[in-house]
Specification:
about 260 residues, alpha/beta, Cobalt-precorrin-4 Transmethylase, domain 1, Methyltransferase, Cobalt-precorrin-4 Transmethylase, Domain 2, five-stranded parallel sheet, five-stranded mixed sheet, about 30% helix, binds S-adenosylmethionine
Amino acid sequence: MVSLIGAGPGDPDLLTIKALRCIEQAEVVVHDRLVSDEILNLIPQGIPKIYAGKGCGRHSMTQDEINQTLVNLANSGRRVVRLKGGDPFVFGRGSEEAMILKKENITFEVVPGVTSGIAASAYAGIPVTHRALSRGVLFVTGHFKNNEEVDLDWKGMANPELTLVIYMGLHNLSMITSNLIKHGLTPSTHAAVIENGTSSHQRKCIATLSTLEQQVAQQGLTSPALIVVGKVVGLSSELEWFESLNEEDTPPVSATLSYP
Ligand SMILES: C[S@@+](CC[C@H](N)C(=O)[O-])C[C@H]1O[C@@H](n2cnc3c(N)ncnc32)[C@H](O)[C@@H]1O
């Protein structure tokens, strides 16, 4: 049995109860780079943890090797937990792993996680939709192989009625903002970058399409980071809550949670 689990975006209290139950019953865990230490610490002592992270330019295992590892571990009869950042089916290659397991007749389950695109935005005071400001939200990848210009639907994306949430796009920020302006969004459109969203290291830059690149460089924001574009970003200062919390306002749920 393999459980493909979303570990959420960073704040360990955003882990689901189902995910926690699976982690507690794991016999071996294969985890990605973006799974926080707090969550790895929930794995019972003595359970092997296999790192299968992929950082920019430092792949520990290829995807084929990860797939084969999951198959081998499952065939050894152990209960395997595959832990991924955010949600396993949102830019997480969880579906590719599920396809291999299916092909090999290995039983698997998918435990959805809280995706960073929604959670990091919320922790930055940005609702991804808001009546009269945004009719919908597009989740897109900003990762292009070898920085080549990718054939994205820039015209469809440059729609002022929508919110854009761009994963893995920080390295291509300049190309993304200039294409959105070229295809119709005004340079004054609100835009943000959120780094390490929902974690205690969260940082954010709230700007416009024309100023975002410069301000992000000034603040020195790095990955993991999301780009959020649209009118809803303008609500960020009004709805800001996370950075102004005091520690005593929020005892971590994990410290108090008791469940059957
Ligand atoms: C390979 S994708 C995985 C996305 C993940 N499955 C999810 O649902 O959030 C990795 C990208 O997700 C975004 N990301 C993940 N966690 C993040 C966080 N805590 N804060 C900001 N961005 C994050 C970044 O754009 C990062 O480059």
